[in-house]
Amino acid sequence: MSKFHVNRRTLIKSGAAIGAGLALPTIFTSSANAYMNEPKGGSVVFGFNVPQTGPYADEGADELRAYQLAVEHLNGEGDGGMIGTFSSKMLKGNGVLGKKVEFVSGDTQTKSDAARASAKSMIEKDGAIMITGGSSSGVAVAVQGLCQEAGIIFMAGLTHSNDTTGKDKKANGFRHFFNAYMSGAALAPVLAKNYGTDRRAYHLTADYTWGWTQQESIQAATEGVGWETVNNVLTPLATTDFSSYIAPVLNSGADVLILNHYGGNMVNSLTNAVQFGLRDKMVNGKQFEIVVPLYSELMAKGAGPNIKGVFGSTNWSWTLQDEGTKAFVKSFGEKYGFPPSNAAQTCYAQALLYADAAERAGTFDPCGIAESLEGFEFDGLGNGPTLYRKEDHQCFKDVLVMKGKEDPTNEYDALEIVEVTPRAQVEYAPDHPMFAGGDLGKCNSGA
Amino acid sequence: MDAIILQLLNGLDKGSAYALIALGLTLIFGTLGVVNFAHGAMFMIGAFCAVTMQKILGISTITLDPEKLDFLGKPLQIKTPIVESLFGKGLGDSIINWSVPLSILLAIPVMLVLGYIMERGLIKHFYKRPHADQILVTFGLAIVLQEIVKYFYGANPIPTAAPDMFRGSIDFGVLIGFAENAIIYPAWRLVYFLFSMAIVGAVFAFLRFTTFGMVVRAGMADRETVGLLGINIDKRFTIMFGIAAAVAGLAGVMYAPINSPNYHMGMDFLVLSFVVVVVGGMGSLPGAVLAGFLLGILESFASMNEVKSVIPGIDQIIIYLVAIIILLTRPRGLMGRKGVMEE
């Protein structure tokens, strides 16, 4: 029978281990502060979690530029950008609640686990009061979940999956960007008008949350105007050569190819589709067409001339002529030498919306900020009148239908606005089947 | 039938890239005994030679057009390529249009020099170290090279166009007796396949029919004996490293119009190419080429909807599945020397 020896060293080691073990589950729920990472000094830290590597790295770089610009404007540097056009007049360019805004950045690598690790580090080590960013819905859903557990506000960046404010919605998460349902609702009538209602569509879909909901949405919307869906083929996110997926389209009887791809994936799949002569083909007595439901300026630039005449949708465009857009484009363009992408605009808007909510709430307490954002109506941030819906924390605003420009005048002029779809046309009930399931839950302040 | 031929062409095309990268890897392993994880980066740098040539030929003089405004409301900058100014619009446009084939002229010296520097500057210090050390150092080098490219060229893919005459697709079916429009295939992909065959042929001819190649082959078989004959085999192997880098670089140059070059494209091909080398037989040049085409074709057929509906996800694992079967039944690979990986 073994004996249980206790000496001083064993006791200290055991005590430390037990203490650390007990402290672990409460690392996010320390009661030292009124809420998680309550700022004590003269500054407050924002956490910018963007992809700096991986297939969406270029979007991430533009997001980071926008965040840095937002920080400058919040601190009273530069020309103030959209602070001057924002309908809420709480931001004065003196930081937020009198505290200077500082920031830390992390690399999500477009991978959920890396994004969570990076967000966790910013919360625990850097004391970030909120996390924002991302260029993938998989990442957004993962980081949103982490922020909910941690008691930190997550202001989503580029995330277009219905799930982000659908089955994976969280009380601590807010999305300014539009979603896949809205893309479908805006795009389908334009497609029907231009290509007719008797079409057969073949989908290639990125195999993760965004691709799935994007495909489901565009399929429902196009079938709603009379189109038939021939096939839907899932493609892994890491695919670079899509020729094997494009070849079967040729003999499928489809006359439209819908590419539910984004970033580098979309650049490659569109390039491959054009190489295989799809755009020159006549099928079922009709000109074969390609559709890219979610567009970005960076993707359009990467795809080069292949994008000409291809329809898609986007959250915002630097070519809009409202005062907010003009102010942001001037500010961003003069600082960086080129126009901002819609990823940059949504991230800039999210940083301002968070800061404004804190000012209106008079606190950085996540629950105060959440209350301040819920049901908030605003204008002047480039998208026209916008509502942050209380039920799911989704922003509702007009959606742009875009087309690859046939005759671009410069390298930034790749896309043109075909239609500004009014908000009413893309709205849906919070319990819409595509957004069903999940629970917003209750705000967590981490206290 | 037409779908099968289409996938066969796709497979040959994919196999071309695998075979060329694997050929270079095998050359390096067969001569220097080094497992070079930086070889994918050579492929990527080759593609960026095409991007660079495109940028060089696009260098322009700028004039302001006060009639048109840019996105900030300032007079629009009109760019006129210097090549156009020097050679006239017609010839200037043609030169720009042929930037990818022309970039072969840039890629060959760049890759040879880069290969030489890599081998002399870093890799030679690892000859006597275990393969694990070689893998670590060359993998690190690959990351450094791709980060350098990312720093200068950005993370976004850069569209690099083939010459106009090869930009569209051709009716391949008509060429082999099928009905019109039955098998349409991208013209540049056919060029890529033919180019790859030419490179493979040139490398084999070089090794087979030149004195230099004969000595290298002798060195691959018995390095010490060749050295005892007073031949500086190390110098020849260094040159072979440069040639291997050039082969990967040329594969990258010509691949640029197929998928827009990006900084991590080398890594995308690297692992698959190593599998190709193992399946073909470590150190076997014909094995590398054969396995490259074989696995490219198998991967292509596995991605057919009809096949995936029977075995979902087979397209993602087929290459590894084949590798496992080959290694279990014939550890030396399809054409590897007896004893290699069999101990």
How would you describe this protein?
The complex is a heterodimer of chains A (447) and B (343). Chain A is an alpha/beta fold and 447 residues long. Helix content of chain A is 37%, strand content 18%. Chain A is globular, with a radius of gyration of 23 Å. The model of chain A is unreliable at 19-27 (pLDDT under 50). By secondary structure, chain B is mainly alpha-helical. Chain B is built from 14 helices and four strands. The chains are: A alpha/beta (447), B mainly alpha (343). The interface between A and B is large, with 45 and 42 residues.
List keywords for this structure.
heterodimer; A: 447 residues; alpha/beta; Rossmann fold; 2 domains; 7-stranded mixed sheet; 5-stranded parallel sheet; B: 343 residues; ABC transporter involved in vitamin B12 uptake, BtuC; two-stranded antiparallel ribbon; Substrate-binding protein (chain A); TAT_signal (chain A); signal (chain A); amino-acid transport (chain A); Peripla_BP_I (chain A)
Give the proportion of residues in helices of chain A: 25-40%
Mean pLDDT score of chain A, rounded? 91
Main sheet characteristics of chain A: 7 strands, mixed
Query: Which structural category fits the helices and strands of chain A?
Result: alpha/beta
Quaternary structure annotation: heterodimer
- Beta-strand content of chain B: 5-15%
Order of helices and strands of chain A: HEHEHEHEEHEHEHEHEEEHEHHHEEEEEH
The tally of helices of chain A reads 13
Please tally the helical runs of chain B, counting DSSP H or I stretches of 4 or more residues. 14
CATH topology of chain B: ABC transporter involved in vitamin B12 uptake, BtuC
Helical/strand content category of chain B: mainly alpha
Q: Which radius of gyration of chain A do the C-alpha atoms yield? A: 23 Å
- C-alpha Rg of chain B (nearest Å): 22 Å
Question: Which CATH first-tier class of the largest domain in chain A would you pick?
Answer: Alpha Beta
Instruction: Determine the N-to-C terminus distance of chain B.
Output: 44 Å
Main beta sheet strand tally, sense and closure of chain B: 2 strands, antiparallel
Mean pLDDT of chain B: 89
CATH class of chain B: Mainly Alpha
CATH fold-level name of the largest domain in chain A = Rossmann fold
Pfam family, one (chain A): Peripla_BP_6
Domain Leucine-binding protein (chain A): 44-405
Organism (chain A): Hoeflea algicola
Signal peptide (chain A): 1-34
